[in-house]
Write a structure and sequence with these properties.
Blueprint: E1 10-15, H1 18-26, E2 35-38, E3 47-50, H2 52-55, H3 65-71, E4 76-78, H4 82-96, E5 103-105, E6 110-114, H5 122-139, E7 146-151, H6 154-161, E8 169-171, H7 177-182, H8 194-202, H9 208-213, H10 216-223, H11 227-235, H12 247-252, E9 258-268, H13 273-292, E10 295-306, E11 311-322, H14 325-337, E12 344-356, H15 364-383
Parallel strand pairs: 2-4, 7-8
Antiparallel strand pairs: 1-6, 1-7, 2-3, 5-6, 9-12, 10-11, 10-12
Helix pairs in contact: 4-5, 10-11, 13-14
């Protein structure tokens, strides 16, 4: 079995420098200038995205703001604005839906689509990709560019999308795979960083072409597991059934838990009322997501990170469903009271054992509390987080900002 001869109809669409580009689109005065979006705009903040003007000056994702400003003294640093990025994500999804119903949202800035007419092959795919690029500029934003990769499978489509950034369009096919791999480095492959690259080199595989031409037995020996065979499938244009699920299964996958976490600006003891303010905010954000998706939870857990990177965790199941913010706050506060008396640096909460809230509560008081929670959710959906909040949050020192987790929307 050689390289997949099926038409390359899988497309990976990646918004270039997503957060920074969207900020430049929203504010024309930022265009052409070095811009970075950081978790916090102070020196210790971590840069989440850098515009290409900033990247040319050496600013990279993962740097501290202080490092970025040393490289680019005129760097404009902005806090993240998740609702803005989610709005663009929704617009892009709607645009791609014009071409096919088979779309998988990989993250806030990446989507994969499977064309519905495989018999048309590469010319159609490339024409559609060009059309998508033009429509994005007209319908979403003239400053927003995407890099698109086309291949017979999802893995190589993602690899292709990263080969000619920004605004690239690359297809990996049976006809050009040798040429394409010949111009790459091992670490250009997604998932092949220094650890895996070291395993391959130890097995005598030093280049992408040697990686591609290796037998399944050679790759199994290099990775010391069945993973070697999975890599052979990916490189030869077949779906491996591990790295990516089927498009249909993606849509059917059910939510298993909801969670929120927050790295504290200053450490607190579990008994400190200021920590309860943080906990209240996390509960409100998590509970709102749970109710919005139509769930209740029968399990709850809490995780704490202390100074010195020691860790404490507990979870428990409940006979009655948890749904309202009050339900969750009482459970989590009780858990905090049992925590070690150490200074907490990170607080994380989650709920699990989910069930669809089809019936609602039979108890009048519970039913009223749920209706109040849903009414408050609608107010916050319209006017913003914490526009209405419990009295315990008055004069709060720290606000839990909206964040987009890696690989999420």
């Amino acid at each position: 079995m050689q390289f997949n001869s099926a038409p390359p109809t899988t497309m990976h669409i990646d918004i270039n420098s997503c957060f920074a580009t969207i900020e430049q689109q929203a504010n024309p005065l930022l265009r052409g200038k070095p811009v970075a979006v950081a978790a916090y705009v102070k020196d210790y903040g971590c840069i989440l995205a850098a515009s290409y003007e900033a990247k040319r000056l050496g600013v990279k994702t993962g740097m501290r703001v202080k490092e970025g400003r040393m490289l680019a003294p005129r760097l404009i640093v902005l806090p993240p604005d998740p609702p803005k990025y989610r709005a663009v994500n929704k617009q892009l999804f709607a645009l791609l839906s014009f071409y096919t119903p088979h779309i998988s949202v990989e993250s806030i800035d990446e989507m994969v689509m499977k064309l519905s007419q495989p018999e048309a092959g590469r010319p159609l795919a490339e024409n559609i990709a060009k059309d998508i690029k033009q429509r994005i500029k007209k319908e979403i934003g003239e400053w927003i560019t995407v890099s698109i990769g086309i291949a017979p499978n999802r893995y190589l489509a993602k690899v292709a999308s990263g080969l000619e950034k920004p605004d690239g369009l690359v297809a990996i096919t049976q006809e050009n795979v040798i040429e394409t791999f010949g111009n790459m480095q091992l670490t250009d492959f997604c998932g092949i960083k220094e650890g895996n690259a070291g395993r391959l080199r130890a097995a005598g595989i030093r280049t992408p072409l040697e990686f591609f031409r290796a037998s399944t037995a050679d790759l199994k020996r290099a990775f010391r597991s069945i993973v070697g065979y999975q890599w052979w499938l990916r490189l030869h244009g077949y779906e491996d059934g591990v790295m990516y699920k089927d498009f249909e299964k993606d849509r059917e996958e059910e939510q298993k838990s909801f969670g929120q976490s927050y790295a504290l600006g200053r450490p607190y003891l579990a008994s400190d009322p200021r920590l309860w303010q943080i906990l209240t905010q996390l509960v409100m954000k998590m509970g709102r997501r749970l109710r919005h998706d139509g769930f209740v939870a029968y399990g709850a857990g809490i995780s704490l990170l202390f100074g010195g990177y020691t860790h404490w965790h507990t979870q428990e199941k409940h006979a009655a469903p948890l749904c309202t913010d009050r339900d969750f706050f009482l459970v989590f506060r009780q858990m905090l009271e049992a925590a070690p008396m150490k200074e907490i640096k990170l607080l994380a909460i989650y709920c699990y054992a989910l069930a669809r809230d089809l019936q609602g509560s039979l108890l009048l008081e519970d039913a009223k509390n749920r209706e109040v929670s849903r009414a408050l959710d609608k107010i916050q959906d319209r006017f913003g987080d914490f526009i209405i909040h419990p009295a315990r949050m008055l004069a709060m020192e720290q606000k839990v900002l909206d964040r987009i987790a890696f690989g999420k929307v």
